[in-house]
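ok here's the first one, seq then struct tokens
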Amino acid sequence: MPLLEPNPDSLRPDTPRPPSPDRVPDREASGTPEPLRSELTALLGPEKVLWKVSDLVRYASDASPYRFLPQVVVVPEDLDDVSAVLSYAHGKGRHVVFRAAGTSLNGQAQGEDILVDVRRHWAGVEVLDGGVRARVRPGTTIMRANATLARHGRLLGPDPASAIACTVGGVVANNASGMTAGTTRNSYRTVSSLTFVLPGGTVVDTADPDADEALAHAEPRLCEGLLAMKAEIEADPELTARIRAKYEIKNTNGYRLDAFLDGATPVEILRGLMVGSQGTFGFISEVVFDTLPLDRRISTGLLFFPSLTAAAAAVPRFNDAGALAVELMDGNTLRASVSVEGVPADWATLPRDTAALLVEFRAPDEAGQERRERAAADVVRDLELVAPARSVTNEFTRETRVINGYWKARKAFVTAVGGSRPSGTTLITEDFAVPPSRLADACEALLALQAEHGFDAAVAGHAAHGNLHFLLAFDAAEPSDVERYAAFMDAFCTLVVDRFDGSLKAEHATGRNIAPFLELEWGPRATELMWRTKQLIDPAGVLAPRIVLDRDPRAHLRGLKTIPSVEPVADPCIECGFCEPTCPSHDLTTSPRQRIVLRREMLRQPQGSPVEDALLDSYGYDAVDTCAGDSTCKLACPVGIDTGAMMKDFRHRRHSPREERVAALTARHFKAVEAGARLAVAASGLLGDRAGDRLLQAVTKAARKAVRPDLVPEWLPEIPGAAPRRLPRTGRTGAHAVYYPACVNRIFGSPDGYRGPTLQESVVALGTRAGKPVWIPDDVAGTCCATIWHSKGYDAGNRVMANRIVEAAWGWTAGGALPLVVDASSCTLGIAHEVVPYLTPDNLELHRGLTVVDSLVWAADELLPHLPAGRKTASAVVHPTCSMQHLGDVEHLRTLAAACADEVTLPDDADCCGFAGDRGMLHKELTESATAKEAAEVNTRAYDAYLSANRMCEIGMDRATGHRYHSVLMELERVTRPAGAPATAARPPAG
């Protein structure tokens, strides 16, 4: 054991609590039982089998109100692996459930036996026919697919609110639609072809001209049965008419029986049946979509009404005017959404009965946009709108920022309203559809029913399509509350079916919580056809039992998850999964959602239980050590949960008092620490040049093993040499800004082999060249943005340096008279925002008077307009750092890169590199995992320049891609340097 290995007990919850009824039992503490574990390991390899109890727990939860512990989780890499798992399940009489993003709201992604992760190795987009079609793998998020298609002026039809996280496989398997898809742009209508694996292992590519012949040879009974059922349905005019009528409005409850009417051959019928089959018919390994035009001219209005019924009554008029989207939000939804950054604060005091419609028109050109806007104005003119808050304008806008804000508020319905629920309550998200002409009546009836059963009313939805969403919060640990929910569901389902002849699931699919009510909606004849279809395609019942079809009338009450209260920063989490694609460690260890899920399971357990002990043993590395602490999860989370902050707090809890004292001491004497670090980098570089990197790697690996991997960095060959000891000469007189070179740029030099000015010389030269010189204070040595201590959870050291840098900056800037320009985005973020909680009251007042500016913003806004036209390079690829995302500086990076290169590429897969200061040297596997997709995309071609704006992130990208990244400011200095000018600014002599 390493000398300074932290004690797992430091993270043990100390909250007194009784054990939860749904806690993982002690017998599961050892994880996957034998022989299941060893047999699957032999079949697939150990790296594809997740068996620890912590693995099983983190996969047991999804965005739904249910929680089922799998016996094992497998992570297949290809179709051979999937077929092997299905064959194994057949032979052993086991069950299989496929899981991708885990954003489904009804438990479709949960299983009690073999759970198959089909997200990690199943991403990819191939553009076909210039974008008219696209081949997409099932682990690809909708947002990622649309990012690629946007270059071709196209997009996918389905557009669920969870597009940031939900994957194509899940969207097709659930026939999820979203804001604009309705019944004409959903997966059923826009899927051109599918490739899927049937339960027996047969692979079907519906685009193959010989697919029917091959299927008839492989599965003759299946083909005969499908054609027989088609004939049976078509011979019944009443049933045929009923099926057609059911799909005139949105409907994802049960199987797509209209596939028997729309398909002429077994393969065509299967193509239709697979859409919306919720993983019960097979595994969809590839989807070819017919894409849609991306109309870029957008006009959007957020219109406020005195009541929900008044808003609903206006919906048909906007539909008639050609609106692509008409979204409804009631007062509770509007008020809850103020927790979302960018939503006006005065919405918090909106009157209770207020409602709003978010109406959007899209057009391909200016003329079309003007016609749409005139049609919208005609409708608005006759409406009785209200303006209950100063921020309300009731006007249509073309401004992208405002439009994005409106949609952010709308898409946050589940998480914003759910996040404001009482602590410890479980959240149920329901959706249903009625004929759009009955929308107002349905709203009134729903609100009355919620009130009758004691639930807070909150409703939103795709009003243009008669599709409403609502939330229910209750305590799943309290039997009487579960019965209250059960009584509501009985009444609700009867209301929707009997009064409105509606769909009990419009776009979220049947899952577990509507399965008992399937026959209520469809009737016995159609429901029995669905059971027969399942028996025909999956006769052994291998796939997803009790999802879609379940004869137990109380099946929707089984497996409801309790929600123990956890740390306040994470307690509002509803486990939606929006955070996962942005997390650097989500393919390596755990995601933010899983970190919270694991913490909640600890709090379900009695103190000292075997399961709690096993979870704590894994949590240190899987959750705490491999968290980059970049907090991009906060940006993705609609209610701003910062799981990175929670992990930093856990790091702090693991520190001994002695470690905290040492960290504070390094902060107090950081000038000496900084000089020593620069000297160590120089010596290491010299030693590496003479003895090779292997010796340094061997020495640091031995030290890591002896001391602690999370304390001792590993030497990486990509680490550059030391920075010059002295900074460029500058003068305070006439300076337009104070330039603060970050300590990382005072320690580490330019990339190996780079010929040109240092970053500091470049910034100074650019300022002079633009007529806006900067001044570097003489006493910057020994100061820091405090991120070093903040990221590691050293609170005492963080407090020391946070106050020191603010006091120093106040003096340097003459009391805030000049801006402080910082040359590393993470350090800008640290000084501008992250130091604030650690400041004394006096220094907090000083901080309010400072203007902290990232060097990218300074260069793009203040320098670039005054710089000479550059001698551009042909192409550049940029890496936007996570700090740039927090600061909103990504477009500034792109702007500067465009001044340096004719062609600028921002990779679609660009995200946090996970290097996180020195974390990429403490856990290099984190950066390797975080950058894998971006590096693969970057290396599909060569670029003339590889640019970013943070030295450690550049090192991480060097390691990931094999190319040398450098600051965009260094490149800007090069391309704008006058012909014949020296390549460096005045550089003081070394020593």
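and now the second one, same deal
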Amino acid sequence: MAKSRQPFSASDKRFATPVLGHKSALAVAIALISSGAAHWAAAQEDSPLWDCQAIDGNWACEAKPNPESYQRPQRSNVFLGGSKGPAGSADATSVRSYHPLDWVNQEQLSEEQRQKLSPGCCGAFVEPMREDEEAQLDPDNAPLRLSADSTEAMQETSATLEGDVKMIQGYRQLEADRAMVDRGTSTAELDGNIRLREPGVLIKGDAMDMDMDTGEAKVHNAQYVLHQQGIHGSAGQISRLQDKTLEMTEASYSQCEPEDPSWLLQGARVHIDPKTEVGTARDIVLRVKGVPVFYTPYLQFPVGDKRKSGLLFPSISSGDSGGIDLAVPYYLNLAPNYDMTLTPRYINDRGFMLETELRHLNQYFETEADIAYLAKDEGGNDRDNQRLVNEGIISEGQASPYLDEDRWLVGVEQKGRGQSWYSRIDYTQVSDRDYLRDLDTASLSLNSVSDLRQLALAGYRLDNWDVSVKAEKFQTIVNGLESPYKQLPTIRAIGNYQWGDFSAELLNEYSRFDHSDKDRNNNRIIGDRARLDYRLSWDQQWAWGYIRPMIGARALSYQLDDINLKDGINESPNAAAAMAGFDSTIYFERQGNLFGKNYKQTFEPRLFYFYSDHADQDEFYNLTLGGADIDFDTSDATVGYSQLFRTSRFVGADRIDDANQLSLGLTSRFINQRSGEEWLRISLGQIFYFEDRLVSLNGEFGDLSNSEELRQQLTAQLSSSNIAERISARRQLDRLERQIGDQSEYAFLLSGSLSQTLRYGLDLTWRQYDDRLERGNAYIRYMDDEARVFNLSYRYDRNYGQLDSNDFNNNGISNELLDNDIEQADVSFIWPVSDSWSLIGRGNYDVTNSRELETLAGFEYNSCCYRIRLVGRRWIDNFLATQGTLVDQQVQEDSGIFFEIQLKGLGGTGKRLSSILKDAIYGYQQREEMFGN
């Protein structure tokens, strides 16, 4: 959810942005334009003129045949697209315009400017640069220079300037064909080709009126440009009133090319109050290709950094189970530090629902809450389910299990932090197991989530201690999958002391484990666990390597509830053991040259010896009539290169290892000496065991006294004609080898980058005792500065086969062994085929079961002012998967069409389709951050 950030601001992209609520949109355009125009009147009051002087708020001009004046400045040099105009080529400080609104076509831009263009843009608004000494001065601190072809005094109170009138005051410039100043009425009128410039702003108009006493100003028949934002528009009149409020009539706003804007926002009347930083607009119309598509009679929007309530763009999609899905968000800016987004949502085959997002931020807490509610689900209309009903495989009730039921979601995430304390809440709960699948339009990764976390944590940090208390449980949302234990609570105190190169780590932990099925599952064990893990280490480092010896001790103690335990069981079993380790590495380096590029090669052997006494844990096993063991949160660790150097072969805290082993790892790296880029890293390692490991998760092999005989028996059973016996023998033999094998699996790791745009990686685990690949992952990832993204990956995890005794896969064969390995190939890309068009695609294929896991294909059209995405998607639906595994042949496919449009400068639909693409295509989020606008 939200990341830690400063107090809310409109520039925070995570905040919802109303259609007319963007800080760089119409509101700010009006504010900059009007305030800039009117500032000329205010500036007259305290700035010296060339041949006029302001006294007591009125103009006093002296008409002389040969007036005393400032030296006329040289025209400033002009920079655009890499070419400079000649110095002193004109008679006044000004800039040359290559287009009425400073628009420059792409082919006329410099290479540097073209690189900065957003994808699909055919040009940019380029502001001519002044290079004179006063170009960067604040107008309030700069003299006002004035020039014209002719100056004429009219009676005693007025003066007229004719022909190429120019007023320069610091970075502000004003040009007109004619200007008349009337001291008697304290007014000024400018006519013909009005051009007002400030950094990043250009205003044009036919005429301009100013009242120098009140500060009121009007620009008639105006056009404006905000260069950096790429914004332009027009207004019948821009007015700055006496109370410094601003008004525009018949205003328009766009971020498209000026010659043919694809969309245009128009308002009959716009009022802005700079004091409250709030604007109001009436009769707002959004036109796309000249066709009105949105209208609101009244709208409020923020000016400056304030957010403001408003309508967001709707989201629309279509899927198999729900039909058309339309969501229309409305953003409510309730206060500077909290807001809310309400999203009424209509799903054609399920009904109306409401989604609410609330966010709050203060000095100590950052909170986000999500609430969604669907009253009386209409059941959906899944064609795949209906087909299964017609074939008699499922019932009508199974096809629509939530018909007429209320469905909901509640989610809260909060992070708290004070000077010494911290806290966290991560809570998600849904009404039923299929809520996310049916109503969240989730990606495949979210669709395969098995448990929703419900966590609350608070902690306090002292100089050398970190004390925390945690409560945690999970909601399981996959049919047939066992829920994890609740930890209510876990209390932890971690001490950390440093004395030079020596350090001590002191872990103390108490946990209470409970489970919802303890009263109906007579194999469920519940109780308390306390554990200690104390370590003292010495870290000695040199340029050529390091050594890190360590000694320590670990202890476990339980207080079990007597529920479900067999008679005579010790309810307070415990274990403790001492341990020691020695970690060391030496760095070797040599220089080389490959294809004319200098590189550094390293060779880094690493040795890690670990010893732990055997602690008798027989009292942890076989505690119930069903033979259950103490196992609250523990499993065997998978082997990978980084796992070779762990001090435990378990994940979790319910076992204390017995170990006498040496881990050997060899790493070599090739590094570009100029850039520091790592071309190649290759690592190979293995663990060598000097003794059998007596401690296991279930203690099934006892003291291993007959391990060799058992190994021979299990090996023989692998050739049995009985499939179930073969599967059982394979499982047992693998567990036995973990305890008596002389070596671990080989772990191989390879990674690097061929360039700044192309990365690759390979991770393999090879089981030595039967010469089989245990698991493997390979990938290639490409992303360049042309917004091209391409990913190719392959994944393999060896699993045990599954017995099909009922012809589950409908192939006419019963009692067969089904392959249950995870073997998947994945390709994804976003690839521009022109300046504006990009192809989007992903194919995630299940090689084991010969089917698609997810396929999506579509396109993106990107221009300066809008972006469109249309994607079709087909993905696995695990609604009827009984074990949460894709070998289940009743797993179905869902399909849908997703559409997104973003009018740049206003907002976009963004949320749903972008969430899918973020999960489906590696590098999508980074591409959006770099090229999305």
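notes on #2: The longest strand covers residues 545-560. Residues 121 and 463 are 56 Å apart (CA to CA).
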